[in-house]
Every structure is written in structure tokens, then in C-alpha cells.
Specification:
It is built from 15 helices and 22 strands. It folds into 3 domains: 159 residues, Roll (PH-domain like), CATH 2.30.29; 105 residues, Phosphorylase Kinase, domain 1; 224 residues, Transferase(Phosphotransferase) domain 1 (Transferase(Phosphotransferase), domain 1, Orthogonal Bundle), CATH 1.10.510. With 513 residues, the chain is of the alpha+beta class. Keywords: Kinase, Transferase.
Length: 513
């Protein structure tokens, strides 16, 4: 296969040549560097931590250098053999180091002949195998020596990338969509390249003209603040990895960041569009929602009617069931984590009360082979009792954790207040742990018995007796409203088909036959 055919198969553009007229890189594109001899040394310049070398095929995605065994392996879009985040790395030409890289591999391998003339030395900080970080030195000798300058320029530019390099967004307090102990969420737009001039202008991707494709929500995670909380015992060290893993896997099962075909039809989650990491920040690019969550909706519009409440609960149960089938539990389902999607043409209004997306996977957990979760987390008032009762490092059943939280949401949207109450945080925690609640009059007098039955089945204290999200979806209350909605849709479709426009050859206007 020729290099041109390989690039076409992988849909990865070749890195442009360096020079004064070189076009700026599109940092939302993955670039093919090509074949190279690569030597890695761990543990600093002395190489005390060991070294490895070989022939590799390299790609560059933002500030990540990806190593593949061959062009075919890169085209297959599988997992790379290795990667290096070059954020804040030192990048320079190094002839002697490149010669050493060439000597470290078999003499017959491609690339050895030009190594002494076109070596690039990258020194970066990476995670150490035993924990913490270490300095890693990577020496790259491109097989095509004329490409070395372009590679070096691209790696230097990648090392200097920041969130501001990639996105336009406001930093000022009050301009955020949300803020946490070590996070902030911003409305943002991907930075676009200036349009090409001359004949190249005709080749501009038509998608770039789509206004909404560049808009996103940007979650900025301050790694220093996060690890300070880890050192204080207030956060689990794997929390960030779990969040990215959960959203990446769930987004892929949804059909990708754009939500295209091939995904699971039940995934009502906020999708992850990309991740970017620097020395001090982890940046998650997410779908841009309306900024209106379920708490806002209840605050402005009051409790939901029976049909709207059923539609909402059904949507959240489907989202939780989708997570469960992918092997995850959200563990923090609550009003503020149920967000209404943004509509491009109507200013962001949601289509219906049930049209919500599950957001914020910061407490998500991967279910182990025994069906257990580990780690006590959640928001008091919504936490499953088994999480409260779990001991330190003790696992608990995953099957009904999110169902209990959805029960608390369902209770709240039907009556206007939360099920568990306490005069202080301790009293609230005890009421939540013991699942002590009541259906008070007069608020619950108007709620149908089948709705109360589902709420009670979800707020069951014993997880072995509690309905799972999958089982709850078959509850009579939800089935009754789903059948009514289906009948309404069928009636609307029938009326639409029966409408005949007869302006041509008869009286203008429409008649219903």
C-alpha cells in the first residue's frame, strides 16, 4: 500500500512541511508524522530508569504523540503501542542523540541512515510506573530527513498548547456555567483557522460553516487543587480517570461525540467530545446544553404533572439502565445533574419535561466482576442506603444504587420537595440512610396510586428488593403513559396523512378527508 493510500484509509492528513508560508495546524485534527526510529529513556537524562527503541509510525493529536507499530496499525485506528503528552516539553534538534537512537536498533532497519542528520530530542514529564511522575526522554529520527524541521516545529507548537490556544471562552467569575471545588465549566467555541486564500479556499470543509459544530461546554479541572484534596483524603486519586473513562465509553456506545447512527437509542447522557491535558489542567470538551437543569425547571414552573413526571422518570431510568449495561453506575443522579439540551433554532428551550440528559460523571464507578462498586460518594438526600452503610474499602451491590437516586428525583418532581429531611446534615444523612419518608397530604393526595407505587419501589431500603432501572421501566405507571403517548403519536400521524392539499385544479387550501 502506498503512503497516499494509507493516509486515505486512515483519514489522517499528512503534517504540512515547515516554512514561512506553511499553513497553521488545525489542532482538532490528527496529523500523520510518519516513520521514525524512536528511542525512549526513563528516569531523566541519565537514563537510569531503562530505555527502549524501535521503528515506529507516529501520529500527532494536539499535544499527544502517538506511537504505532506500522502505518497499517495506525490506519486500523486501534490502541497505540505508546503515547507521550508533550505539554511543556523541551523540544530540540539533537544530532548525537539521534545517532544513538539509530545505533540502538538493528542496522538494517529503515531510518538508520539519516538519523545523524535529523534527530529530534523531546524531554517531557510522564506518569511513573510506581506512581508519581518521572522525566522521559524520547529521541526521534524521522525516516524522511527533509521532514525533520516540520516535525520539530509541530512538536514545539504542541508543547506550548493551552486551553486558550484551542478554545474561545470567558474566564471571569459569573461567566461560568458552573463551578466546583476544583472545576469550572464554561460556554466555549473551538478556535477556527483563518480561511485559506486563493485556490485553497475552495477546499474549506463545509462543516466549518456550521455555526453550532464549534460550540461546546468546556470543563476545566485544576489538577493541583484536585491532588491537594487527594492528599487531604477528600478525593479518591482515581476520580478523574473514572470520570473520563465513563464518559468516553458511554459516548462511544451512544454512537460517538456527534451522536450519529450506530449507537444505543436509550442513551440520554451528555456526550464527551474530546479531552485535552496540560501540565496543570485536564480539559473535557462536552456537548453544550441549555444551561437549564431540572432544579431550575421546577423552581420556575413548579411540580410536574403526572404525564410529564412519567416522561421524565422514564428518560432518567433509560439513562441509568444504559450506564448499567455498559458496566457503570453514575452514583450522583440528582436534580442539578439532569440538564435540558440546547436547541440551535429556538434559543435553547427544551422540547418537553422528559427531554433531559444525565450529566457530571465525576462520581461514576465501574462495576466489578462481582457486581460491586467501591467508594462512598453521592449527594445527601439522594444516596442509596447501602452506600451509607458500606465500610471503608468495602464493596456494595451496584444493581440498585442509581434506582434509589431516581426514586428521590421522582418524589421531588411529583410533590415539589425532597423525600428526606433533617434539621442538620447529620439528621438528613440518617433519614436518607434509613430511607425514612412519607407521602404527605395535601401534596400527595392528587398523585395517582401507581405513581406512588413506583416511587416506593425505587426508594426501597433493601437493595435486593428494590427495582433496578431496567425493571422499573416496565412499571404500570410508566407503561400507562408510554401507551398514551404512542396512541397520541399514531393519531397525529394519521391526521397528517389524511390531510390533502388541493390547491391545484380545485379550491385553494386544504381539506381534511
Amino acid at each position: 500500500m502506498t503512503r497516499a493510500a494509507q493516509r486515505a484509509a486512515a483519514a489522517v492528513p499528512l503534517l504540512p512541511d515547515a516554512g514561512p508560508v506553511a499553513r497553521p495546524l488545525d489542532w482538532f485534527c490528527t496529523y500523520e508524522l510518519g516513520a521514525a526510529t524512536v528511542l525512549r529513556r526513563h528516569g531523566g537524562d541519565g537514563g537510569g530508569g531503562g530505555s527502549s527503541s524501535g521503528q515506529r509510525w507516529l501520529l500527532l493529536r494536539q499535544n499527544c504523540l502517538l506511537e504505532y507499530e506500522s502505518a497499517a496499525a495506525a490506519a486500523a485506528a486501534g490502541a497505540p503501542l505508546g503515547f507521550l503528552n508533550v505539554s511543556c516539553a523541551r523540544v530540540a534538534f539533537d544530532v548525537r542523540a539521534a545517532a544513538a537512537a539509530a545505533a540502538a536498533v538493528d542496522e538494517g532497519d529503515a531510518g538508520g541512515g539519516c538519523a545523524a542528520a535529523c534527530g529530534i530530542r523531546v524531554v517531557a514529564v510522564a506518569a511513573a510506573p510506581g506512581g508519581g511522575t518521572e522525566e522521559v526522554e524520547v529521541v526521534i529520527a524521522p525516516a524522511a530527513r527533509k521532514r525533520a524541521a516540520a516535525w520539530c516545529d509541530a512538536l514545539r507548537a504542541a508543547a506550548a498548547l493551552t486551553p486558550e490556544s484551542l478554545y474561545e471562552f470567558a474566564h471571569a467569575r459569573g461567566a461560568e456555567l458552573g463551578r466546583g471545588r476544583y472545576t469550572s465549566v464554561h460556554r466555549a467555541r473551538r478556535r477556527a483557522l483563518p480561511p485559506p486564500q486563493g485556490p485553497a479556499a475552495a477546499a474549506v470543509d463545509a462543516a466549518a460553516a456550521e455555526h453550532d459544530l464549534a460550540l461546546c461546554a468546556l470543563k476545566l479541572i485544576d489538577k493541583r487543587r484536585f491532588f491537594r484534596r487527594v492528599a487531604e483524603g477528600k478525593e479518591r486519586p482515581d476520580a478523574l480517570v473514572r470520570e473520563v473513562l465513563a464518559q468516553a465509553v458511554l459516548t462511544a456506545r451512544c454512537g460517538g461525540a456527534a451522536g450519529g447512527g450506530g449507537g444505543d437509542g436509550g442513551c440520554a447522557i451528555v456526550r464527551l467530545r474530546g479531552a485535552f491535558e496540560t501540565e496543570s489542567q485536564l480539559v473535557l470538551e462536552l456537548e453544550l446544553m441549555s444551561g437549564v437543569d431540572l432544579f431550575d425547571r421546577l423552581s420556575s414552573g413548579g411540580v410536574l404533572g403526572d404525564a410529564d413526571a412519567a416522561a421524565l422518570v422514564r428518560s432518567v431510568l433509560r439513562a441509568a439502565d444504559f450506564c448499567a449495561r455498559a458496566g457503570f453506575a453514575h452514583r450522583d443522579i440528582k436534580l442539578s445533574n439532569l440538564i435540558y439540551p440546547r436547541r440551535a433554532r429556538d434559543g435553547g428551550a427544551a422540547a418537553s419535561a422528559g427531554d433531559v440528559r444525565l450529566a457530571d460523571f465525576g462520581m461514576a464507578g465501574r462495576v466489578d466482576a462481582q457486581g460491586l462498586l467501591h467508594g462512598r460518594c453521592g449527594t445527601p438526600g439522594y444516596v442509596a442506603p447501602e452506600i451509607w452503610r458500606a465500610g471503608l474499602r468495602e464493596g456494595y451491590a451496584a444493581r440498585g444504587v442509581d434506582a434509589f437516586s431516581i426514586g428521590a428525583v421522582a418524589y421531588t418532581v411529583l410533590c415539589g420537595y425532597e423525600p428526606f429531611y433533617g434539621g442538620d446534615e447529620g439528621a438528613l444523612a440518617r433519614a436518607n440512610r434509613d430511607a425514612r419518608y412519607e407521602f404527605h397530604a395535601p401534596e400527595w393526595s392528587r398523585v395517582p396510586d401507581d405513581a406512588k407505587d413506583l416511587v416506593a419501589a425505587l426508594l426501597e431500603r433493601d437493595p435486593t428488593k428494590r427495582l433496578t432501572p431496567a425493571a422499573a421501566l416496565a412499571h404500570p405507571w410508566l407503561r400507562r403513559h408510554a401507551e398514551a403517548e404512542a396512541a397520541t403519536r399514531r393519531g397525529a400521524g394519521r391526521r397528517e396523512r389524511e390531510t390533502v392539499c388541493c390547491g391545484a385544479g380545485g379550491q385553494p387550501g386544504c381539506a381534511v378527508m
